Amino acid sequence: MSFNGKVVVVTGGTKGIGRAISEKFKSLGANVIILYNSSDNIARELEEKGFLTIKCDVSKRSQVKKAAEIVAEKYDKVDVLVNNAGIWYLFSFEEFDEEKYEKMMKINLDGTIYVTYEFLPLIKKSKGVIINMASNAGLGTSAIGNTFYSITKAGIIILTRRLAYELGKYGIRVNAVAPGWVETDMTIGGKSAEEIEKLRQWFKDRTMLHTTGKPEYIANIVSFLASEDSTYITGQIIVADGGRIDYLTHGI
């Protein structure tokens, strides 16, 4: 599998799953552009390693449009777009927090829409690939408190299928990856070693493989979906959660 000379854009690519995806494509020879909205120090480190980083809040269409213009000035196409940027807040329906809900919607779902729309002219030039980061939460496999996050990811799943239908005429493939629980700063950051171990065990008990996810597992799937090895795959949601057992069987 080689991406020599290919142009890959990854949103939220400085940390966690996005960082693993960015590094995977870089190792395969791609020119990788990372859109990020925090972690300036990490972005500078990545610049020194040959990545192009652009500070961009994907929830603001004007910033996304500017980022697309910057990429267009340097490259005449985009071969792969990975819509990875996202945030997660945990609260039940009865604890509805409008500010957190709107922030998740703007970044997770609206951000995916804005980035795809503004970069589409460059993707059309290469008959490229779009890969969206969904979640098994968007398919209903999620504990209590994840209702509103699940809604944003369900929206990404529907968007993926609709884009595959609408953009297929251009030779563009659109798929999504729906990870289960993956160990990243977002899921274990700020927790004690004891809390992390309890969390790991909780998820191990609820997967068929009795293990937890690593960012590189997801990066491997993304690179496959972007490669010629998956030429006949579009409109699909690839679930990567270790065989998560539905939460209803545990009475959560």
Would you write up a description of this structure?
45% of the residues lie in helices and 14% in strands. The protein is an alpha/beta fold. The chain has a single domain, classed as NAD(P)-binding Rossmann-like Domain (Rossmann fold, 3-Layer(aba) Sandwich). The chain has a 7-stranded parallel sheet with strand order 3-2-1-4-5-6-7, sandwiched between helices. The model is unreliable at 248-252 (pLDDT under 50).
Which key phrases capture this entry?
Short chain dehydrogenase, seven-stranded parallel β-sheet, alpha/beta, oxidoreductase activity, acting on the CH-OH group of donors, NAD or NADP as acceptor, 7 strands, NAD(P)-bd_dom_sf, oxidoreductase, 252 residues, single chain, Rossmann fold, SDR_fam, 8 helices
Short description:
Belongs to the short-chain dehydrogenases/reductases (SDR) family. Helix content is 45%, strand content 14%.
CATH names the topology as Rossmann fold
Number of strands: 7
Instruction: Tell me the span between the first and last alpha carbons.
Output: 42 Å
Largest β-sheet summary: 7 strands, parallel
Sequence-ordered SSE layout with sheet pairings:
Blueprint: E1 7-11, H1 16-27, E2 31-36, H2 40-48, E3 52-55, H3 61-74, E4 80-83, H4 98-126, E5 129-133, H5 147-167, E6 173-179, H6 185-188, H7 193-204, H8 215-226, E7 237-240
Parallel strand pairs: 1-2, 1-4, 2-3, 4-5, 5-6, 6-7
InterPro entries: NAD(P)-bd_dom_sf, SDR_fam
Pfam family, one: adh_short_C2
Organism: Acidianus brierleyi
